[in-house]
Amino acid sequence: MNELLKLSLVETVKLIKTKKVSVKEIIEAYINRLDDTEKYNMLSEKNYDEALELANKIDSKKQEDFRPLEGIPIAVKDIFCTVGNKTTASSKILNNFFAPYESTVTKNLKNAGGIVICKTNMDEFAMGSASDTCNKGEVINPWTDDFSKPLTPGGSSGGSAAVVAASGACFSLGTDTGGSIRQPASFCGNVGLKPTYGRCSRYGIIAFASSLDQAGPISKTVEDAAYALTYMASWDKNDSTSANVKMPDLLKNIKESIKGLKVGVPKEYIIDGMSDEIQKLLDNGRTWLKDQGAEIIDISLPHTKVALPCYYIIAPAEASANLARYDGVKFGYRAEGPFKDLNDMYCKTRGEGFGKEVKRRLLIGTYVLSSGYYDAYYIHAQKVRRKIVEDFNSAFKDVDVILSPTAPSDAFVLGEKKEDPINMYLNDVFTVPSSLAGLPAISIPAGLSKNNKPLGLQLISNKFTEDTLLKTAFALEEAASFTHRPNLEK
Amino acid sequence: MLIDEKVTKKIAFLARIGLTEKEEEDFSKDLSKILKWMEDLKKIDVKNVEPLRNVNDIELLEREDIDFSKNSDQSKLLANAPKKNGNFFTVPKVIE
Amino acid sequence: MSEARPYKISGKTGSWEIVIGLEVHAQVSSKLKLFSNGSASFGSNENENLDLLDIGLPGTLPTINSFVIDQAIKSGLALNAKVNNFSIFDRKNYFYPDLPLGYQISQYKEPIISDGYIDIDINESDSKRIRIERLHLEQDAGKSIHDQSPEDSFIDFNRAGVALMEIVSYPDLSDWEEAGDYVTKLRNILRFANTCDGNMQEGSLRCDANVSVRKPNDDLGTRCEIKNLNSIKNLMKAIEFEANRQVALLESGETIAQETRLFDANSGKTRTMRSKEEAHDYRYFPDPDLLPLKIQEDRIHKISKTLPELPAQLKERLKSQYKLGSYDARVISAELETAKYFEDLSEGRDPKQAANWIISNLFGKLNGIDKSISESPISSKKLGKLLDLVNDGTISNKIAKEVFEEMFISSKEAKEIIEEKGLKQISNEDDIEKLVDKIILENETQVNQFKEGNTKVMGWFVGQVMKLTKGQANPGIVNKIILKKLNN
User: Fold this and answer.
1) Residue C96 counted as domain residue
2) Are both C132 and C91 inside the same structural domain?
3) CA distance A398 to A37
4) Is residue A203 part of a domain?
5) Which one is catalytic: A180, A186, A201, A219?
6) Which of C95, C93, C354, C377 is closest to A367 using CA atoms?
7) Tens of pLDDT along A430-472?
8) Which residue among the candidates A77, A110, A119, A471 is catalytic per the annotation?
């Protein structure tokens, strides 16, 4: 493997600044890598021409004019609107959609000098946990050994996680609604960071569930995640839910000691049927943090168990309205006529344009909002959601950070859970509660399963305390010293 | 079963999603299972609990009412239209 | 306050009471839309006033227009209502081609304004209070155009997202005249407050009417909703038709089906649009893209200070400042333009005279050609000059009316018409004396009658002078000279 591809984001930034290597060389190395890894079906769009053009421009620039992400190749989940590329959310219903505007997050990154090298496949409209609902086919985890039984990269940001695992970009962008950054990061051996709700603007990100969606980076290291988030986040007047809360300096204290830090381990996160290896992983995490001077405290988050059903009411309800705009009138797919009437056009267009999981969730969402069920389901769920928020609020009176596994298992074989939606939803059991509470959370690769596949540990911190979160994550990363990479020469 | 095919059909029409018969059957089963799984939620006592509205207690930002500046490229707004006529989007005739 | 007007419908089985509640959609006067930077102006080329959100592009988000909130607060204050410190925007879900997001952002359970009222005049001295349940903000939809092609409907999103105030009354209205008065008054208040231009032709103000009938003191009957009434005339006609339709059905032993109906202005009838079974399930829920709208007291206070004079206050001022009678004050204050016209006209003139001319002369002519005062061919300035000519004795009142007629047709200045037609009043005493002398000389019989004590014959002499001068002689001077000569 080209040595350039082994560098972290932060290392690459430093190298580019020295001008010892041209940006063109770097971009070419990554393009070659992406070409060599096509079998994983990670990409929805290649943006190579523009990337090379930008690289040439940068190479003719003076060193002192370099911006923080100058020349850095970034893989972008196909849910961010980017000008000049298709943006489809991996759905047939947006099969040929070109956004006439740029999402705030990608605009911020481009303004910082970043180069979008490709867009990545995902679960359709970010609804899934296996990247198996993409209209361009399943994404395959680069950790797969046996191609007759390909592994899932997790989802929904499976393409973005897989690209980083395959060293196809310095870092990638994902979105996380109930775990869609953290779970694939865990499955692919990456760091995946979901910031506080409101940290990154949602403007220009195709909405799944507005009250939960949040953009974040998937990277090789914790420091990379801190660096990337610094240039992604902004208070955006185009997004009413974006928060005007100053971002702490994420890099300044990241390597500081965590001595005296209080880490809570919720007893409810030790669930029935959890495998020994996950239990062991969690025990390791406790020990690693304790060894570095943190105080481990057993805590309780009593409503953890109902977080999943709560999430599967709220997210689909919001989605049922968010996806109503895909009606074949203004953009995207329209079924072939003739139509009996207007409703016939709607039903055919949406029936053909959406995949099975999206339809399933739209039906759930429509049902829980419909007359006679609204109070029993939707309102009730929002009340339970408040209980979940209160659980965390009281926990954070006693602890600074919460430690848990990221996912209940390692990467499973694609197709394994496809026919059993509830079993699939259980993937999000550890990630959903913090999503419902809008809290920042991160997954750090922390060990290998008995199948030699990566396993992640999750840290959750209080709102707008990404600095504490990242400092703890850095300590955990150091202790775990996970250096495994997938073998791609298969 | 909580959801039979009649209910599924009704919901699907509300959501304007055309389903095949097979899908109606499958989704009825799925939805019944999912709703049953959600029953746990009802056990939670939420008396006197206000439904959550937003996770962050922030102020709604207001935008100024300034002079309209025309979108620089109107063709871009119509460029993705599945069907159009001049600068109109078009749909099969609506009769009401 | 007083008793309502008598029941409008007496059927075969006796009197029927009509119960009417109105939902008025008033477009907020603003430059930009409620949640986007699209233009709120009327009459541009199709799909030209758009921002990205207005066609529901994926990833676009709503942000609220501050001025629109101020306008809603102002309207609420003008309607004697409560401005809520906390309100919520909800999504109202339904599919229609001109609804770009697949939902309308509206306010359902917690509106920005609640509990207001309007007093409508029942007669010269009595008024009736119509309570307003709420005023909430919501987005308008786009426009579907059906007559451009045989196969397709054309969609124009210019209006999509424009801010509307939906103003919902309690069912306090008892007949179509009250309904008409209520909307007229409501429209007037919003126009005075400058929060809605009230232009019904352009659709800036539209009504839905909920109508039911019952026997006096019975429980409420089943109601029907008549949608999209775009003029006060149609509103009144539709309610009249609908109430009579319901009475006829009930009196023939049938029941009323709760449904949504449309009014056909050509036939003057309402017809079924959709039944209760087909009613939408709107699945309202709070819009997660927006936060609760919190309004502080000092903002309300600040806006209350900018509230202009409203019709009721104006009416009182017309009485006190201009000493107008109650009837004149009511008519003059009924429309913003009338009040403005009046104030311009009475500037430096007799207010009573100004009011008289507007009410008796101008309105009569305008009604004849179905035009409003703002479309009057005679401006207040021109009419003022005409009145000045009366007041300085150049023409008589009678001639002035003739000139007015002519002005109404040609829009010419009064002076011009008077000169062209030689209508100037003759006030020169010598000229009039010569005429009077001539008449006395030629009509000995009438002179003798006068001298015998028949003073009525005086009028005959005046008539003769007027005949000879084509009515242009100054009547005061004519009288004076005739008396002087006959008594000699």
Assistant:
1) yes
2) yes
3) 46
4) yes
5) A180
6) C93
7) 999 999 999 999 999 999 999 999 999 999 999 999 999 999 9
8) A77
Tell me the per-residue pLDDT of C140-186, one tens digit each, with 9 for 90 and over.
Answer: 999 999 998 888 999 999 999 999 999 999 999 999 999 999 999 99
Task: Determine whether A409 is an active site residue.
Answer: no
User: Is A410 part of any domain?
Assistant: no
Nearest-by-Cβ selection for A327 from C57, C95, C287: C95
Q: Match 């039903």 to its residue by tokens.
A: A347
Domain count, chain C: 3
- A245: helix, strand or coil: coil
Which amino acid is present at C122? I
Kindly give, in sequence order, each residue whose CB lies less than 8 Å from that of residue C472, ignoring residues fewer than 6 positions away: C395, C396, C399, C422, C423, C424, C425, C426
- Residue A186 is a catalytic residue: no
Contact of A312 with B34, CB cutoff 8 Å: yes
Contact criterion met (CB below 8 Å) for B18 and B12:
yes
pLDDT single digits (tens) A247-269:
999 999 999 999 999 999 999 99
Domain-located, residue C1:
no
C 304-363 → B contacts, CB under 8 A: none
Q: Do A327 and C102 touch (CB under 8 A)?
A: yes
Q: Is residue C150 located within the same domain as residue C231?
A: yes
Tokens of residue C305, six digits? 């200070």
* Total beta-carbon pairs less than 8 A apart between chain A and chain B: 162
Q: Which two tokens stand for residue C423?
A: 């209508």
Q: What's the CATH code of the domain at A228?
A: 3.90.1300.10
What's the token pair of residue C283? 């699945």
d(CA C47, CA C228): 23
Q: Which residue has the tokens 């009434």?
A: C229
Length of chain C: 488
CATH number of the domain where residue C434 is located: 1.10.10.410
**In whole angstroms, how far apart are CA A126 and each of A47, A207, A214, A411?**
22, 9, 11, 18
Residue A180 known to be catalytic: yes
Q: State which residue of chain C sits closest to A81, comparing Cα positions.
A: C59
Q: How many angstroms separate the Cα of A393 from the Cα of each of A301, A359, A401, A404?
A: 10, 35, 12, 17
In angstroms, rounded to a whole number, what is the distance separating the alpha carbons of residues A21 and A59?
Answer: 9
Strands C64-65 and B62-63: parallel
* Tokens coding C22: 């109105």
Q: Which domain holds residue A26?
A: 3-260
Q: At what angle do helices C311-322 and C336-346 cross, to 10 degrees?
A: 20
Burial of A246 by CB count in 10 Å (0-12 exposed, 13-18 middle, 19+ buried)? exposed
Cα of C142 to nearest chain B Cα, Å: 11
